[in-house]
Structure formats: structure tokens, C-alpha cells
Design a protein that fits this description.
It is a single chain. The protein is α/β, with parallel strands linked by helices. The protein folds into two domains: 61-118 and 214-363, Rossmann fold (3-Layer(aba) Sandwich); 121-203, no CATH class. Helix content is 29%, strand content 17%. The protein has eleven helices and twelve strands. It has helices at 76-89, 129-132, 140-154, 157-160, 174-183, 188-203, 233-252, 276-285, 305-309, 322-329, 384-394, and strands at 30-31, 39-46, 52-59, 65-69, 93-99, 113-115, 224-227, 259-264, 292-297, 313-316, 350-355, 360-366. Strands 1, 2, 3, 4, 5, 6, 7, 8, 9, 10, 11 and 12 form a twelve-stranded mixed beta sheet that branches. It is elongated, with a radius of gyration of 23 Å. It starts with 29 loop residues before the first strand and ends with a helix. The relative contact order is 0.18. Bound molecules: adenosine-5'-triphosphate. Residues 1-39, 361-397 are annotated as: Disordered.
């Protein structure tokens, strides 16, 4: 990658190599001045004695694949938010945050928009539909849905050619798919089951034949937060697939200028469903057209190996589970002496940052957010019942 921009007078050992911009101040979230490529400040080097050192930045000039690991409460979502804030200020890029827990709304204060995403049914390929609806593709209803979606796409030339007009003619609606099911030459029981599953998908509220094209999310450089809190897992997976693939295709087709960064919180959940192929595409081929992917998870062991092997940026907060540490071990390159697990810092907001480009691993204190962070475990002592009671008892009257 190209993480660690550092102060040019840093005595940290390894010298910056190609693509790394020396940082001259640690105040901004992003540096774009003069000849320097944009660098997103994520924190500071953390010395053994706990003192903060030179500023650390992620080079946002080129695309990356990255992972952010950490046990619950160690600061993963917070770190993703720090990255989103900085990317929102960097020129030429556009962050899109997948927010399954509803903790990134604070990015509004950085000019971000929070959307309840809708995607076009046609963004999900026919063969993925049975799985999406929880149907066996080899079953009667499963194969019927598959066929109906394929036929609807074939009958819709503008859609097949990637048309993104605002009308509903670009993609079949779920109601139209149900009509096709009703008219299909198939046993009544299969038609009934297929229609019921399509009706359920309609109730998720994430599909719309006239949903705006995914490229709208990156029309300007402000962060877009896809609010998926409370969205059923399958539906959230459909959104992530459509967005991941949509950004990739839009870059390939030259429809978007900016380099998109897809930041996925709770990423393990998305590698377990319909979004998996699109995320793998970004991991393995996303950098060629300029699409970055950063996956944050508390369960690294539940991510596919490719997520780590393809990542050129690894940010690891504290981990303890053996399976998760094993996944981290896969990232150990020959240039990293000793095992990474033993080097994980323990404090909240502290992380080991492994930078493939400079072939280094450093302990970093992630900087504080400039916008509110919605994460963190709820505390009984912070509930209204307690704070309200405390306020009452302090009332001088
Ligand atoms: N870099 C940091 N600077 C200051 N506080 C931080 C930092 N990172 C995390 N915190 C604090 O720790 C809390 C937990 O962080 P966060 O919500 O990111 O945890 P998480 O690892 O994503 O946990 P979960 O898996 O439960 O979502 C935050 O609400 C914040 O108060």
C-alpha cells in the first residue's frame, strides 16, 4: 500500500519509499497541498513509553484493499469513521460507508449524507436470486425465480446495456417479476412459493426499479453512509453486492471520475451471502479500475483468506480469539520479524498498522474523530433513567 506517510525527520527507522508523502503537519485530516498526493491522517506513531510520535497517514492517491480488525469495543468502527472523515476531505476520492449498525450518522457533520439505500433488482444477477430469497436454485421455485429474472433482463435491452435512466424501464420491479411468475409455465405450488418469496423481498424495502444509479453515491466527494441498521441480512447483502459491483462497473465504463472507497463495517456478515462475489471482485481486481475496499470486522477468522492476502493495508486492534489470530498470522510477511499477535496493542484506539508498500508494522494511536461516533457499548450508567435520576437528585430546588 502506501500507508504511513511520516514526518521527513522521523527517526523511526525505515525511510519512506515511493508513493509515500512526507507529512509536514499533523493537524488536518487530509493533506492535498502543493505537489503532495492526498494523504489521510489516521493517527500518530505510538512509542513504547506511550508518547505520540509523528503523524501517520494513508496515501489516498491510489486505490487500496485494507482490513481493520479488532475485538468488540477496541475501536474498529471508530477507525473506519476516521478514514471516512479524511477521505471526505481528500480530493479525487469518494467514501461510501456500509453501516449495518447505524453508527456512522455523525459523518453528516463532515458534509456526509446518510441514505437508506435502494438498488435495482436487475443489479442482482439471475443466478444469485434463489440464494438471496433463501431458495434452493435446483428446486422448482428457485429455478423459476432464476428463469424469470433472466427473462426479464433479456427483455429489457436498456438494462442489459447498463442504462441508468431514471425511469422504471431500466430494470424490472419486483411486482413485474411476480407477474412473470404468475404467468409462467410452472406448477402452481412453485409459482405460489416463488411469488411469496418475491413478496417478502419487496417488504425489505431495498429494491426499486427506479432506484438511482449507484454512481450517484460518489457524485461529489462527500461521504455517503448506507444506513442498513435493522435491514434484514439478505437485503443488506443485496445492497452491498449492488453497490460494490456498481462502483466497479462504473469505473470500468468510465462513468465516474473519482476513485471510490467502499468502507464495510461488520464485513464478515457480507462474505457469507449474496455480496460475497462482488466483494471478492473488489479485493482481487478492484484496484485496476481504482476502487478501494476496506473491510472492518471483529471476526477476522470469518473473512476469507483472500481478504487478508489481497490487503495492502492492515489495521489490527486487539484480538484474542485463536481463529482470529490465525487469520492475522496469514498476513505475516517475511519482512515482519516475530509474530504480529504478540505485537498487538491493548488500548482502545490503538492498533498495529501493517503497510505492505513500506514493508513495516507500527503501533499507531488512531486520532480522535472530528465528527460524533455512534458506536460503543451502551452503559447502564449512561441511560436516561440513571442520568435523569442523577439530574433530579442534583436539582437544588
Ligand atoms: N481512536 C480513538 N480515540 C478515542 N476514542 C476511541 C478511539 N477508538 C475507539 N474509541 C472509543 O471506543 C469506543 C468503541 O469503539 P468502536 O465503536 O469503534 O468499537 P468497535 O471495535 O467497532 O466495537 P463493536 O464491534 O462493538 O462495534 C468508541 O465509542 C469510542 O468512545
Amino acid at each position: 500500500m502506501h500507508v504511513l506517510g511520516r514526518d521527513s525527520d522521523s527517526d523511526d527507522g525505515a525511510s519512506p519509499d515511493g508513493g509515500i508523502s512526507p507529512r509536514t503537519n499533523g493537524e488536518g485530516d487530509c493533506e492535498t497541498d502543493g505537489e503532495l498526493p492526498p494523504t489521510v491522517r489516521i493517527g500518530s506513531f505510538l512509542a513504547r513509553d506511550g508518547s505520540a510520535g509523528a503523524a501517520v497517514g494513508v496515501d489516498a492517491d491510489g486505490p487500496h484493499a485494507g482490513v481493520v480488525f479488532g475485538k468488540r469495543g477496541t475501536g474498529k468502527s471508530y477507525t473506519l469513521g476516521v478514514l471516512a472523515e479524511g477521505l471526505g476531505m481528500a480530493r479525487g476520492v469518494a467514501p461510501v460507508v456500509v453501516d449495518p449498525m447505524g453508527v456512522f450518522g455523525g459523518l453528516r457533520a463532515a458534509g456526509g449524507r446518510v441514505v437508506e439505500p435502494r438498488v435495482r433488482p436487475a443489479a442482482i444477477p439471475p443466478k444469485a436470486w434463489p440464494d438471496l430469497l433463501g431458495l434452493d436454485p435446483a428446486s422448482g421455485p428457485g429455478s423459476l425465480v432464476w428463469r424469470v429474472v433472466a427473462d426479464a433482463r433479456d427483455d429489457s435491452d436498456p438494462l442489459a446495456s447498463g442504462d441508468d435512466s431514471e425511469g422504471s424501464d431500466g430494470s424490472p420491479s419486483l411486482a413485474a417479476l411476480r407477474d412473470r411468475v404468475a404467468d409462467a409455465d410452472a406448477p402452481a405450488a412453485d409459482r405460489r412459493a416463488a411469488a411469496n418469496h418475491l413478496r417478502l423481498a419487496e417488504s425489505w424495502g431495498v429494491f426499486g426499479a427506479d432506484a438511482p444509479p449507484v454512481r450517484r453515491f460518489v457524485a461529489d466527494g462527500d461521504p455517503t453512509v448506507l444506513d442498513l441498521a435493522g435491514t434484514p441480512e439478505a437485503a443488506a447483502g443485496a445492497v452491498v453486492r449492488a453497490v460494490a459491483r456498481g462502483l466497479y462497473d462504473a469505473r470500468i465504463d468510465g462513468e465516474i471520475d473519482r476513485l471510490p472507497w467502499l468502507l464495510v463495517d461488520e464485513a464478515h456478515a457480507f462474505f457469507d451471502g449474496v455480496a460475497d462475489p462482488a466483494l471478492r471482485t473488489l479485493l482481487t481486481r478492484g484496484r485496476a479500475p481504482g476502487v478501494s475496499l476496506v473491510c472492518a470486522t471483529q471476526r477476522p477468522g470469518a473473512l476469507p483468506s483472500v481478504a487478508v492476502s489481497q490487503s495492502d493495508l492492515l489495521v489490527a486492534h486487539r484480538l484474542t480469539a485463536e481463529r482470529d489470530l490465525d487469520r492475522l498470522a496469514e498476513a505475516e510477511a517475511t519482512y515482519l520479524a516475530g509474530d504480529l499477535a504478540s505485537r498487538l496493542p491493548t488500548g482502545t484506539g490503538e492498533a498495529l498498522v501493517v503497510d505492505d508498500a513500506t514493508e513495516t508494522a507500527h503501533t499507531v494511536r488512531i486520532r480522535e474523530r472530528r465528527t460524533p461516533h455512534g458506536g460503543g457499548s451502551p452503559r447502564a450508567s449512561e441511560t436516561e433513567a440513571v442520568t435523569g435520576a442523577a439530574a433530579e437528585s442534583e436539582d437544588p430546588r
